[in-house]
Amino acid sequence: MYVPADDQYFDDRTSTISTSYCIERRLGPRAGRCDGAEAWGWEAVSIVQWPRFDAVPICFCSDSRSDFGERLRRKAAKLHGMNDLDDDTCRRALTARDARFDGRFFVGVTSTGIYCRPICPAQPKPKNCRFFPNASLAQQAGFRPCKRCRPEQAPGLTSIDFGSTIVAAAVDQIEQNGSMIVCVSNILRHLGSHVASSATTVQEHVGVSPVQWMQTSRLLMAKRLLTETNLRMTEVAGVSGFQSVRRMNALFREQFQMSPTDFRASVGNVHTSRHRRLSMTLSLGYRPPYAWDEIMRYIRARIIPGVESMDASVYRRTVEIGEHSGWLSVSHDAARDQLILEIASSLLPVVPAIITRVRKAFDLNASPQSIQAVLSSDRLLRPSLRRAPGLRLPAAVGRYETRCERLSVNRFPLSRQQR
Asked: Nearest-5° angle of CA 355, CA 361, CA 362?
């Protein structure tokens, strides 16, 4: 049984709603009763949740008064720590190609000069492997991204994984504003904290400066567009956030030892279009399993007429970001553990923001095994987790929709049929 607590709040700086949910557990006879009477009680375990999901699949307990809450809190802290991966753990995950660690670390191969995801089909020798917690550190160490496993498609990290709210918010804003010619200091100032202090905090947590993180995000975005689309070089440079094609060419030659044109030819994407297409298609990876049917059922019960539409396997909606408006659609490719995102050409200038918002909306950065391990310790949740492995935490694409949804759900609860 899930009961929303009263301490809901909206944090405008991090663009998230945090809602405390309580799991009520029936307790047995209380100890210490001298009169022999059986006294039954209830115990509330508070779990922090991000927007739009009824079955709470994450994160950590805040009620340290109960043994159950304390066990969940310790287990969640252990599973979601960002710096708890040593070289031996990474090496075993690489050997097994364990999808649970996809996006949590990257492997730099000294013999080839490339860095890969843990699930890459290539198997380098252990003595040639170096491990990095993020792609920016691997690129700063002189490695270039692999063309087979494509690190730009790896799942990202959640806010909990970064270990700091300000770091998670800064990384989120940097990735969303990657297509805009903006100063990193302006992004950090927008978060409401001191610029120098925020930059230092980001570097302490992720190992690179905000500027280096933005540069890596732009390079990986350009690599994604060159691989998956037929956009012209000027469009690729503009969408990725480069001031000019010349600047993009210089960074590509520095990082990949080839021009963007040669790189596009090397991956087999040699067809460029002189005419703008009506849409473009991109793929977004996740850590399997993914409960697509359950998530579609959840969204269908809360669909906004005139804004969203759905059929058996495709979700569609309209989007407006700043001066740009258009439509997008999302479908599931279970064979490749990806979601297929189709974006209207009118949204081309804000593609990085669209990708970031869709990843949040479908919770593609979640770790289902960690969620399963934490919540399966409760006997009431265990049957639901077995029936639908890979439950996620879907959210709204925009902040305004998130606010309206939380207000409407609290005032007008869904019927049992809708749930």
From this structure: 95
Looking at residue 51, its pLDDT comes to: 33
The pTM for the full model equals 0.73
Cβ-based burial of 253 (10 A; exposed 0-12, middle 13-18, buried ≥19): middle
| Cα–Cα distance measured from residue 201 to residue 394, given in angstroms and rounded to the nearest whole number | 29
CB 160 within 8 A of CB 80: yes
Report the alpha-carbon distance of residue 33 to residue 53 in Å, rounded: 40
Distance CA 419, CA 417 (A): 5
Residue 248's closest CA among 225, 229, 228?
225
Q: CA of 69: how far to CAs of 1, 27, 320, 383, in Å? A: 16, 13, 41, 20
pLDDT tens digits along 246-301:
999 998 998 888 899 999 988 887 665 555 578 899 999 999 999 999 999 988 88
Q: Tell me the C-alpha distance between 374 and 321, whole Å.
A: 36
Separation CA 233–CA 230 (nearest Å) = 9
CA distance 54 to 61: 17
Annotate 156-170 with DSSP letters as a single string.
---HHHHS-HHHHHH
Please tell me which residue, 331 or 174, carries the higher pLDDT value. Answer: 331
